[in-house]
From TrEMBL:
Transmembrane segments: none annotated. Gene3D superfamilies: Winged helix-like DNA-binding domain superfamily/Winged helix DNA-binding domain. Belongs to the CSN12 family. It comes from Hyphodiscus hymeniophilus. InterPro entries: Csn12-like, PCI_dom, WH-like_DNA-bd_sf. SMART domains: PAM. Residues 251-447 form the PCI domain. This is Protein CSN12 homolog. One of its GO terms (molecular function) is double-stranded DNA binding. Pfam families: PCI.
């Protein structure tokens, strides 16, 4: 117990919010691996509140004197923490024995800790610099909710860094859904603070938003994330600028906003936000960069019709497996190969919610195939001794033969015309179809925009 309150005393006297939050962590420090056990065993249920009140309010060695209301608020917080630690220790022991249902009790105890911290801000005058305590409460409430749902066989999705994977097959995520509601309370606690910005809980807003995004994505309730963005927009004038927040908060926020835009098929905005996240992300955060590129690469394919380079993908073997087969086929204009690569990676593409976007890459592959036909048609002599120019009147049958060659199925002229008309409509090819002549008349100044011919 003494080590916990020594750290509490030090952090409070220095006004160090992150140091204070570490006294409420369910993970013991590496320098003191038995800290949680020692803290829980240092008192009992009958004496815990009295002991904590002494350390927080009446210890004469404290370099400061807390107001009675604020002090009592922290007593309730540490009492809830003490009970939660006991449930966590029980759950860890039960897990080793193969019984995981104890994580439900650990979650409920940790939720009570979060509620006590919220009450501290609303009723007991906790200061804004202590907001990192809300970070710890929210972060581990979400983790314990996932563990509790896993224990009942509900949700077995793996926890990752950004934790963007949804679990659409889950029947129910009872505790995680409850955790989302509690996180929303924390969000409102920060958002509704009316104190001047320098002393405002609004400085904790983006960390909590990011926890909500992770939770909503895990629950496949991505539409709820848009409500958070609307709430932020409504308070924009009373909020600090995003650039003023810690880098980690900004990267995660931009990543999730980018993915939300991506799923709304707003690829320009998605690319802008994901590019910002990529540029801000720490170079050693390999997993996070990999997740950002998972969505940024398909975005870039659709907005600029460019493919990822081997140099970009080389540090990320998983991304190479995902995108290199498709990229090679798109570059070569290999339609059957593209279809095969898309089918081979279908499960992973669907899981990542990028299948439909990548499927549109088939248009780029088709464009490259048609471009090869155009280049293979050669040149024609110009009048008056001018340099020869490329043939721009090409038979529809020539394009049809190229398309049919790979699939080994003869396409009807009407089908080929339909494909060519779509390519012209999408501005992937410039020209028009002359049905009477059975030819495509291509633009002499740029038949295939962006390809240099």
């Amino acid at each position: 117990m003494d080590s916990v309150f020594q750290d509490f005393k030090k952090a409070y006297s220095e006004g160090h919010g992150y140091g204070l939050s570490m006294t409420l962590s369910p993970i013991p420090p590496s320098s003191d691996p038995n800290r949680l056990k020692a803290f829980f065993r240092s008192t009992n249920h009958a004496s815990a509140k009295t002991d904590f009140k002494y350390h927080i309010l009446y210890d004469n060695s404290m370099p400061f004197k807390l107001p009675q209301d604020e002090g009592n608020g922290w007593v309730e917080v540490y009492f809830a923490y003490w009970k939660a630690v006991g449930e966590i220790l029980n759950a860890e022991t039960a897990s080793k024995a193969g019984a995981k249902t104890a994580w439900t009790k650990a979650y409920e105890a940790w939720k009570e800790l979060a509620n006590q911290i919220i009450r501290g801000y609303t009723n007991c005058g906790f200061e804004a610099w202590t907001v990192p305590c809300l970070y710890v409460a929210g972060k581990y409430m979400r983790i314990f909710a996932i563990k509790a749902d896993e224990a009942t066989g509900i949700n077995t999705a793996k926890i990752t860094t950004f934790q963007d994977e949804s679990n659409p097959e889950a029947e129910k995520n009872e505790k995680l859904e409850d955790a989302a509601r509690q996180l929303n309370r924390i969000f409102q606690t920060c958002l509704a603070d009316r104190a001047p910005l320098e002393d405002s809980r609004k400085w904790g807003i983006y960390y909590i938003i990011n926890l909500l995004f992770k939770t909503y994505f895990k629950l496949s309730s991505i539409s709820l994330s848009k409500n958070i963005l609307k709430a932020i927009q409504a308070y924009r004038g009373d909020m600090p600028n995003l650039d003023a927040f810690p880098m980690a908060h900004r990267v995660t926020f931009k990543y999730y906003v980018g993915v939300i835009c991506f799923l709304d098929e707003n690829y320009v905005e998605a690319e802008r936000n994901l590019t910002e996240a990529w540029n801000l992300c720490h170079k050693d955060a390999t997993r996070n960069i990999e997740l950002i590129l998972t969505y940024l690469i398909p975005c870039h394919l659709l907005t600029t019709h460019t493919l990822p380079t081997l140099n970009l993908l080389s540090p990320y073997p998983r991304l190479q497996d995902l995108f290199l087969p498709l990229s090679r086929c798109i570059k070569k204009g290999d339609l059957p190969g593209f279809d095969a690569a898309l089918a081979a990676g279908e499960d992973e593409f669907v899981k990542r919610r990028i299948y439909l976007t990548l499927e549109r890459g088939r248009d780029i592959a088709l464009r490259n195939l048609l471009r090869k036909v155009f280049l293979a048609s050669g040149f024609e002599e110009s009048k008056d001794g001018a340099p020869p120019v490329r043939v721009t009147r090409i038979k529809i049958a020539d394009f049809g033969a190229a398309i049919s060659m790979g699939s080994k199925e003869i396409m009807e002229d009407d089908e080929v015309e339909c494909l060519l008309a779509n390519m012209i409509y999408k501005n992937l090819m410039k020209g028009y179809i002359s049905r009477e002549a059975g030819k495509v008349v291509l633009n002499k100044k740029g038949a295939f925009p962006g390809t240099g011919v």
